[in-house]
Amino acid sequence: MNGTYYISAEKMTVGYDGRPLIENVSIGVRRGEILTLIGPNGSGKSTILKSMIRQLKLIAGTVVLDGRDMAALKEREIAKKLAIVMTERIRGELMTCRDVVETGRYPYTGRLGILTKEDKAVVAEALETVHASDFADRPYNAISDGQRQRILLARAIAQEPEVIVLDEPTSFLDVKHKLELLDILKTMVRERNVAVIVSLHELDLAEKISDRVVCVADGRIDRCDVPENVFRDDYIASLYGIRTGRFNALFGSPELPAVEGEPQVFLICGGGSGVPVCRALQRAGVPFAAGILPESDLDYPVAQALSAELYAIPAFSTASEAGTETVRARMLEIGRVISTVPTFGETNASNRVLFEAAKAAGILISAEEFLRGSDA
């Protein structure tokens, strides 16, 4: 393993009751870096994390923290370096949110656990960091799941750790708080040089936040690489065994399967303007054709996933006159056209031909009309 890793698993075998689930796990994270685990449900992401933080006993191998075998470290030593945010709920009866966050300071207190003025200042700053100051004195058991997740993160921040391990921290958060939490992590990594290991289900978030990604599947570490080499349509489909629909690497999101059948609408689009119409047609159960799209266009991956017929050309190229005429004839045969493109430049002359032919035939409707609820 690379000696610069702040925490690393070396030839680690993990499992339950002595039965291996994943063998020969060798991963690590440096300070100032976010390492994200992704993979199907039940693949072992949480098991790896729990084994690294000693919640599960290792079957084989070692975990090294700041250059030392964690097995030789005392709990208080570990707690000063490593903070944990797991999915299990803590018992917070008779505790306020502030009380829960204050437990993050116990590695630094004496036997009686009495907090100093400095400790309380750290707690207040941690609550402010996760935007939880306004409910800090409410009972912990009386807040929402999303608020609890923010309090648990504040507790981890209050430990002033060198590394934070999080298991599915965004599971109970709405979009706003997902983004806030991940922004907090990125800020801590950048400003405090913290190392972060996190497991995520949301591939779009994993793609945006990660410095490196560990892919777990079929009882093994399938790949560990930078996001650009992981989040590809074909690889994600293989990793998750996707058989229905597909993963859209450009948008970092899954796409439902295309509606099968003879196209009822022809879509002229480009530059990302066609994405909402493609999805609206799919939701309405309307099979459609789309074109003429260069493979470099923002609309191409969504149209490729959702259209019944797609007329595409190579990236950064223009359609031939013969090819344009073939598509024009097919468009007129379909007999109904939606255009999301108001103007056409030199490189998009073929779609101007389609647009003008649809307008002359009286079969053109606007995207705005369709999205307002006109009958598709």
Task: Explain how this protein is built.
35% of the residues lie in helices and 23% in strands. It is α/β, with parallel strands linked by helices and 376 residues long. The chain folds into two domains: 7-240, Rossmann fold; 256-371, 3-Layer(aba) Sandwich (Rossmann fold). A six-stranded mixed beta sheet has the order 6-7-8-3-9-10, sandwiched between helices. Strands 15-14-13-16-17 form a five-stranded parallel beta sheet, with helices on both faces. Helix 4 (117-129) packs across helix 5 and helix 12 (321-334) runs parallel beside helix 13.
- The global form is elongated
What strand line-up does the widest sheet have? 6-7-8-3-9-10
What is the number of helical segments per DSSP (H or I, 4+ residues)? 14
Task: Give the CA-CA distance, first to last residue.
Answer: 58 Å
Mean of pLDDT:
90
Q: Ranges with pLDDT <50 over ≥5 residues?
A: none
CATH architecture of the largest domain: 3-Layer(aba) Sandwich
Short description:
By secondary structure, the protein is of the alpha/beta class.
Give the topology, please.
Blueprint: E1 7-16, E2 19-29, E3 34-38, H1 45-52, E4 60-65, E5 68-69, H2 75-81, E6 82-85, H3 97-102, H4 117-129, H5 145-158, E7 163-167, H6 175-192, E8 195-199, H7 203-209, E9 212-217, E10 220-225, H8 227-230, H9 233-240, E11 246-248, E12 253-255, E13 265-268, H10 275-283, E14 288-294, H11 300-306, E15 309-313, H12 321-334, E16 337-339, H13 349-361, E17 364-366, H14 367-371
Parallel strand pairs: 3-8, 3-9, 6-7, 7-8, 13-14, 13-16, 14-15, 16-17
Antiparallel strand pairs: 1-2, 1-4, 4-5, 9-10, 11-12
Helix pairs in contact: 4-5, 12-13
